[in-house]
Design goal:
This protein is α+β, with helices and mostly antiparallel strands. Helices cover about 30% and strands about 35% of the residues. It binds coenzyme A (COA). The site of coenzyme A (COA) has 21 residues, from β4, α3 and α4.
């Protein structure tokens, strides 16, 4: 059982625990996360991905977070597609929590924390997200953090062997 939740920028040393979680959760995540190449499930492959995420952070397009509880990495939360221009100021949130730590409120807390980062650190005005229509846990996490659904993107993501619709979510962060 994990207790407190915090988020921080992802680090190269997160590669091994992330790879271990994603190997364990391969089947559990099949319906919700896109298929990945074999190297996604190795520490080396994750290290390369973390390097790219941190390059995106340096470029201002991504805020790549690790979700940590009791000193252990239990998931990721990422703000992607950041558009910082004054007339846009938006970003899109994605996350996963390891099956060993689910249903303890971690995703909900992590999302609340990343919304603070988006507002205070990134100066964004609008947060977006997308879920599968059947992903009720993720929809609960979004609703609990003030997101509302605003539409359906038809046939927008190839998941578990077929093109599927995405439910689109929004939350206005500030004026
Ligand atoms: C979605 C996910 C991030 C949620 O993480 P989590 O830490 O378990 O989330 P929380 O504990 O904060 O909240 C889970 C909520 O789902 C609810 N829930 C759990 N199973 C459910 C089910 N079968 N049907 C409906 N609601 C369910 C819980 O009751 C809770 O809602 P509540 O706060 O109103 O009680 C996690 O399940 C996950 O990583 N899944 C696989 C990857 C994924 O789906 N990523 C998101 C893609 S959009």
């Amino acid at each position: 059982m994990y207790n407190s939740t915090r988020i921080r920028l992802i680090e190269p040393t997160d590669a091994a625990p992330i790879a271990a979680h994603r190997v364990r959760d391969f089947e559990a995540f099949r319906s919700w996360e896109p298929a990945q190449p074999a190297d996604f499930f190795t520490p080396e492959g994750q290290a390369e991905r973390i390097d790219k995420l941190l390059a995106g952070y340096q470029a201002g397009t991504v805020w790549p977070g690790a979700v940590v509880a009791d000193g252990q990495v239990i998931g990721q939360i990422t703000v992607g597609g950041i558009l910082p221009q004054p007339h846009l100021r938006r970003g899109s949130v994605g996350y996963w929590i390891s099956s060993v730590a689910q249903n303890q409120g971690h995703a909900g807390q992590a999302l609340g924390l990343v919304l603070q980062v988006m507002t205070d650190e990134l100066g964004l005005h609008r947060a977006e997200a997308s879920t599968n229509l059947a992903n009720l846990p993720s929809q609960r996490v979004l609703r609990r953090n003030g997101f509302t659904p605003y539409g359906v993107a038809h046939s927008s993501i190839f998941l578990n062997g077929s093109w599927q619709d995405g439910l689109l979510w929004e939350r206005i962060l500030s004026d």
